[in-house]
Structures are given as structure tokens and as C-alpha cells.
Design a protein that fits this description.
Largest sheet: 7 strands, mixed
Helix content: 40-55%
Radius of gyration: 19 Å
Structural class: alpha/beta
Order of helices and strands: EHEHEHHHEEHEHEHEEHEEEEEHHHH
Number of strands: 14
Shape: globular
Number of helices: 13
Strand content: 15-25%
Length: 308
């Protein structure tokens, strides 16, 4: 049975889509990737960007009143539009195209190990989530402990669904239409914080127990990288399945090149350079803004005051 992944991208980041697809095909060459372009509607793009095993979609393909409202509301923000179209694209693939099981991944994810078990989970569960696995020690790194409650327990860069998840996806889409913003006062974080309610709404939701999934710099403490013979295992048990190479993860690899996951990072870079030879990875890394540094300073100051 052919497996189906999907992702959403802007044209400027299509080289990452190809990178994602290469990493998937290296694991299973029969896998299909569905790609929604969120910032253009020219049908000529479909032939221009398509590859064998990859199908391209435009916003106008995802018909419906909720989609139209979402586009009208967020057309001025590429990021918000891309995030909020996620539940609608997934629902379209399930209900309109009759694909029984689909896994969404951000286009900055790369696969390095067998993912068959994830699709097997979707025979029994309607939704798959991967936790961030942030630090949760109340005695140290408390800013990460608090991030669980501000940013969300689950990472929206991965979501597995089957046909029975359509009602939950529609609920999620309506939440995104209501608000897609970072607002600690409201308990919101873009499209992501809503995922915290998925296990409550859908009792056939699985929090993926495999610690080799959605590895990133933020879960190094909970998902420990260890050498066992010539293999890297997570917590001495789980092989590496996929890594989330967002900006902060890339920055960590650049700063700590002896990281046990560095060979995977080097392979990821080779994929990227295949499609964008001129890329300067240093420019891709994340640098905190002045406002973020001020917020961190205030947080540290209040924390010290609280502990006096």
C-alpha cells in the first residue's frame, strides 16, 4: 500500500519540499507526497514543480466556505495562511480525495528511518501527535517548563490522521479562523496550542511513544542521543526516524558540530544544496530579536525575584 504524506509551502521554500521528499524516498521509494502551495494560484506551477510521486495543489483546489473565509482573513500573512490551511488541506485529502491515511509534516523535516509503524498506528488511532518533549524540570531551565504551557504540548509540524479525524480537523480549522496568534494572555500560540485539546476531543488520539520522532534541539534532554555500537539510539532504545530542522535546531547544529546527530544534519545539508547550491546555512539560523532578548531578561529577573 502506498503511503501518503503532505506538506504546505510557499514558492520560496520549495527547495525544502524537494529535500523532504528526497529524505522520504530514501526510506520508501513508493511513498506519495501531496504539496499545497499557499502563496500562488497559477496553474502553470503544477507542471513546473511536480515530480514523479509528488502532486501539487493550489488554494483554489481546497473549495468550501471555511477555506474562503480563511484566505480572506489571512491573505496578508504568508505564515498564518500556511498554518491555518493545514486542517483544511488534510480534510480535503481525506474526504474529497478519499485517501484513508495521511501524515502532515512541515517542509523543514527530514526522514532517516522507517516510518511504516506511524501509518500502522493509523489503523487503530484516528490522530497521531508528537509532543515537543521540552525540558520539564522545575529546578532548572524553568523557562522551558513554562513553554509547555505557553507554546503547546504538541508540535504542529507533524500530524497523522485517518478518515475518522475529519470532524476534529474541521473544529481545528474553525479555531484557526477564530484566532491564529501568539497570545499568552489568551492561551494561544498560532495554530499549535489548539492541539492540546485533541486527546480530549478525540479519544482515539495517540501521543506517539517513539522518541525517535520529531527530534529537535528543544528535546535533547528528554530524548537523549546515545551511541550504541555504531548506531545513534534515542534513550538507548529508539532509532532516529525524523528530525525537525527548524531555525533553532539548525542553529544548535552550527554551534555544536560534535552533536551525535551531526551526520544526519550533514546529510540534510547535502539534500538542501542539491536544490539550492548557493544556500548559506548560517543565514538560515535563528537569531533572537531585541524584543525576545528583552522578554528573556525580564523573565530571568522575575524568576530571580521569586526565588529570593
Amino acid at each position: 500500500m502506498r503511503h501518503h504524506f503532505c506538506t504546505i509551502t510557499t514558492l520560496s521554500h520549495f527547495y525544502k519540499v524537494y529535500t523532504l521528499f528526497d529524505s522520504i524516498l530514501a526510506v520508501d521509494s513508493s511513498t506519495h507526497l501531496h504539496v499545497l502551495i499557499s502563496d500562488a494560484d497559477d496553474t502553470a506551477l503544477i507542471n513546473k514543480y511536480s515530480k514523479s510521486g509528488m502532486k501539487i495543489y493550489l488554494k483554489k483546489d481546497i473549495k468550501g466556505e471555511l477555506t474562503s473565509k480563511m484566505i480572506r482573513k489571512y491573505i496578508g500573512s504568508r505564515d498564518k495562511l500556511r498554518w491555518t490551511l493545514k486542517p483544511l488541506f488534510l480534510k480535503y485529502l481525506l474526504s474529497d480525495l478519499k485517501i484513508e491515511k495521511v501524515i502532515y509534516v512541515d517542509n523543514d523535516i527530514a526522514f532517516f528511518g522507517d516510518f511504516e509503524f506511524l501509518f500502522d498506528y493509523l489503523d487503530e488511532y484516528n490522530i497521531l501527535l508528537t509532543p515537543h518533549n521540552y525540558y520539564r524540570n522545575p529546578d532548572a531551565h524553568q523557562n522551558w517548563l513554562e513553554a509547555n504551557f505557553k507554546v503547546g504540548l504538541y508540535n504542529a509540524g507533524f500530524l497523522g490522521v485517518n478518515i475518522n479525524a475529519c470532524n476534529t480537523l474541521e473544529w481545528w480549522a474553525k479555531c484557526c479562523l477564530y484566532r491564529c496568534e501568539k497570545s499568552p494572555m489568551r492561551g494561544l500560540f498560532d495554530d499549535q496550542k489548539y492541539l492540546d485539546l485533541f486527546p480530549v476531543i478525540e479519544n482515539r488520539t495517540l501521543i506517539v511513544p517513539h522518541k525517535g520522532c520529531n527530534l529537535a534541539d528543544w528535546n535533547e534532554e528528554i530524548c537523549k542521543r546515545e551511541m550504541h555500537g555504531d548506531r545513534v539510539l534515542i534513550n538507548g532504545k529508539y532509532p532516529v526516524v525524523f528530525i525537525h530542522f527548524n531555525n533553532t535546531t539548525v542553529r544548535t547544529f552550527l554551534q555544536y558540530p560534535d552533536n551525535l546527530l551531526n551526520p544526519y544534519f550533514e546529510l540534510y545539508l547535502s539534500y538542501l544544496r542539491k536544490y539550492k547550491p548557493e544556500i548559506k546555512i548560517e543565514n538560515e539560523s535563528y537569531k533572537p530579536t531585541i524584543i525576545e532578548n528583552i522578554k528573556l531578561f525580564i523573565w530571568n529577573h522575575l524568576n530571580r525575584m521569586n526565588n529570593m
